[in-house]
Amino acid sequence: MRTVWIVNGPNLGRLGTREPEIYGSETGDDIHKMLQERFPELELEWRQSDDEAELMSWIHDAVDSKTPVVFNPAAFSHYSYALRDACVLMQEAGVPLVEVHLSNPASRESFRRHSVISEVASGVIQGFGAESYALALSWIDRH
Length: 143
Ligand code: DQA
Known about the structure:
Elements: E1 2-8, H1 20-23, H2 28-38, E2 42-48, H3 52-65, E3 69-72, H4 81-93, E4 97-101, E5 123-126, H5 131-142
Parallel strand pairs: 1-2, 1-3, 3-4, 4-5
Helix pairs in contact: 3-4
């Protein structure tokens, strides 16, 4: 079975209670369960960290193991050149990495309008709540 990692950045461990009007009321576990039911042919591993270094090491591991990644870098999207550089390694290795966001950052505060990750992602899906992850997986599944 093909494995896909769903990697989530800072504050996404608070899904369910964090600004539910923006991010919805489902927890990370709820979303993981929903996705696994929708994609039984994939083995989905849900990961979350508030630590940039840990996220980077997971991207490095994904490069080495050629594991496709659905990546919600959260606030790091907007300024982490270190994570961007790690994502370039995915690009160079030809391993898919789809950037996702629950909300649509383009319609929010101005600092959210730019993602340094988007330039080096295979594609970006944003604004569809938990469905953003499902759309990303649907592309990876067929890729
Ligand atoms: C987010 C959008 C980011 O701007 C924000 O910092 C997050 C969540 C989203 O999924 O909508 O933490 O990545």
